[in-house]
Amino acid sequence: MILGDPEIRLRDLAENCRLTERAAQAIVTDLETAGYLTRVRHGRRNHYEVTPGTLFRHPAEGHHEIADLLQLLVDLDQPTPRPTADDHRKHSDGSAHPEPRTPPPGPPDLPSRQRRDRP
Questions:
Q1: pLDDT at 53 (0 to 100)
Q2: Which of 13, 22, 78, 108 is the most exposed place for a label (fewest CB within 10 A)?
């Protein structure tokens, strides 16, 4: 959330994450102390920034930057534009036809089980 809105208030951060303000403050302070975040005061608000180049602590992931993971999470939070009724595929004759609908993938057709009676 901080990467998506660097000037987010801790109150809003806590509410959106379903945490108490005290818990959110402790997490942000821990991240700042560990060097993952920096905080700069802008008037009455704080401006947070993810420190570029910080790596995961575990050796298995130690070659990956934290910012890359956070950017993926921010991108997932962005809504994907949905096609509207006006979005049509044009045929070669210039007429518009709606996009064909494809059924969602489902389980493969399985043969039905046959009941076996035991002797």
A1: 83
A2: 108
Distances (CA, A) of 53 to 9, 37, 63, 64, 113: 25, 11, 10, 9, 57
Closest of 24, 68, 76 to residue 50, by C-alpha? 68
- Residue 37 structure tokens: 């975040």
The rounded distance, in Å, linking the Cα atoms of 31 and 46 is 15
Both structure tokens of 75: 């991108």
The answer to whether the CB of 6 falls within 8 A of the CB of 51 is: no
For residue range 57-77, list pLDDT tens digits in order. Answer: 777 877 888 777 777 777 766
| Cα 98 off chain centre by | 31
- CA angle (79 as vertex; 73, 84 as ends), nearest 5: 160
pLDDT digits (tens, 9 = 90+) for 21-57: 999 999 999 989 988 899 999 888 899 988 888 888 7
- For residue 20, the number of C-alpha atoms closer than 13 Å in the C-beta half-sphere is 3
Rounded CA-CA distance 96/4 in Å is 39
For the entire predicted model, the pTM comes to 0.54
